[in-house]
């Protein structure tokens, strides 16, 4: 450090001989450049912090939107497939049975009785249903295939536009854009840090270090103020210690930037893991509702086929008579009706598509199968592991920053005391800090 009492470019007197105030002292160019780089580092770091905070908010909003969306998907699927579709299939099955037995109702009492029961069942249930329900409206009725359940699902979703039109994927993309800008700011801060470290090891021209005096007298400059240690201008015997001091300062500047990046990565991975968990849960519940309805409908068609076969077996060895012939005709009609029921079950329980007016989230959930769930669970676990790894990385970097702070304090103390022989201690701490940082970034 230069003594201002012997530095020809620094005047320690507070006033000129004529009693006027002395000109204000200014930092030398070297010091101003250092302060400029530190200002860039501080501003870029603060900007990156704000940008990553915006990214984290977007990620949390995406999780909240995903929760609302998947909850709506499950609720609509439950209402349509658990509350409305079973009754609709029963009404459609009764109407189809009445249609199959209609031509035989005048040929015998059996067909007439069965026809009346089926017809009254269909009429009664439809009459009691609300006009806006699946059964109460002809909007979804197909005379040959029953009711259009996926279309009903799409119409029900339109009644909840606030939830069904949420786009958590777009919100995640917005967070990714904020995170990208955050990384750009971190790169700017890192570039300023590297520039400061490089400049500290480069010997400046003589004109930068001792400017010529101005025309009005000697120039008043403040020297020896170095926020960043300057190995290039340090005395030869202190140059090694100054380089170590500079390394510790550089670590203190760089490690918080890496911690910010790790925290941003952890937030994103956690959000993705949560979204995958929500989608998996919705897929299991929603597809389970559809599968349960389809299974029940197919079982009903199989039961109808069994009943028809049993009726035919019951009269197989009976002597021919008008009653036996009539019962065989009823059995044949019921066999045809059972085949039609199977087609109805498959039509009403089919997986919805976008053409049915169903949202993409519902299509994905309702079309998922049990064999798809392990892959979805593995993807969720992958993002969880990424979040855990990013969290561990942040902890390691925090430990490395603590070690670098200790190294910087010791280096400054030993340099000030002139105990250069003890610089091995801050050197060891700096080496451990670098090792921990490398482990965090690699592992």
UniProtKB/TrEMBL annotation:
- What residue spans carry the Low complexity bias annotation? 1-22
Instruction: Output compositional bias ranges, type Basic and acidic residues.
Output: 148-162
Native source species: Streptomyces levis
Kindly indicate whether the keyword Transmembrane helix belongs to this entry.
yes
- Renumbered to this chain, region (Disordered) spans 1-23, 146-170, 208-240
Transmembrane parts of this sequence? 33-50, 180-203, 394-417, 423-442
The molecule here is called Uncharacterized protein
Q: Does the keyword Membrane apply?
A: yes
Q: Would you say which domain of life the source belongs to?
A: Bacteria
Record keywords: Membrane, Transmembrane, Transmembrane helix
């Amino acid at each position: 450090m230069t003594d201002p009492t012997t530095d020809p470019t620094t005047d320690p007197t507070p006033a000129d001989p004529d009693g006027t105030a002395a000109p204000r002292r200014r930092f030398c160019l070297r010091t101003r450049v250092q302060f400029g780089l530190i200002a860039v580092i501080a501003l870029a770091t603060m900007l990156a912090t704000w940008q990553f905070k915006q990214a984290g908010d977007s990620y949390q909003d995406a999780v909240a939107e995903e929760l609302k969306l998947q909850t709506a998907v499950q609720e609509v699927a439950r209402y349509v497939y658990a509350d409305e579709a079973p009754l609709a299939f029963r009404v459609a099955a009764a109407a189809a049975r009445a249609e199959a037995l209609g031509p035989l109702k005048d040929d015998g009492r059996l067909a007439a009785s069965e026809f009346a029961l089926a017809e009254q069942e269909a009429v009664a249930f439809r009459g009691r249903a609300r006009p806006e329900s699946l059964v109460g409206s002809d909007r979804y009725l197909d005379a040959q295939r029953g009711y259009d359940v996926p279309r009903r699902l799409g119409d029900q979703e339109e009644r909840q536009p606030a939830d069904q039109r949420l786009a958590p994927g777009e919100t995640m993309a917005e967070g990714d854009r904020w995170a990208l800008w955050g990384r750009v700011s971190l790169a700017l801060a890192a570039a300023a840090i590297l520039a400061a470290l490089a400049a500290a090891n480069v010997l400046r021209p003589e004109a930068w270090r001792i400017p010529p005096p101005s025309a009005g007298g000697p120039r008043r400059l403040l020297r020896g103020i170095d926020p960043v240690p300057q190995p290039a201008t340090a005395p030869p015997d202190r140059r090694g210690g100054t380089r170590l001091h500079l390394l510790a300062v550089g670590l203190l500047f760089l490690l918080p930037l890496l911690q910010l990046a790790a925290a941003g990565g952890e937030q994103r991975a956690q959000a993705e893991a949560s979204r995958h968990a929500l989608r998996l849960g919705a897929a299991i519940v929603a597809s389970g509702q559809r599968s349960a309805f389809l299974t029940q409908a197919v079982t009903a068609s199989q039961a109808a086929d069994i009943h028809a076969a049993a009726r035919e077996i019951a009269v197989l060895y009976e002597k021919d008579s008008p009653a036996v012939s009539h019962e065989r005709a009823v059995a044949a009609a019921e066999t045809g009706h059972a085949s039609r029921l199977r087609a109805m079950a498959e039509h009403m329980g089919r997986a919805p598509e976008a053409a049915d007016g169903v949202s993409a989230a519902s299509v994905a959930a309702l079309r998922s199968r049990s064999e798809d769930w392990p892959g979805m669970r593995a993807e969720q676990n992958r993002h969880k592991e990424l979040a855990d790894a990013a969290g561990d990385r942040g902890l390691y970097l925090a430990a490395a920053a603590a070690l670098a702070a200790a190294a910087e304090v010791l280096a400054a103390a030993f340099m000030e005391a002139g105990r250069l022989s003890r610089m091995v201690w801050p050197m060891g701490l700096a080496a451990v800090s670098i090792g921990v940082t490398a482990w965090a970034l690699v592992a």
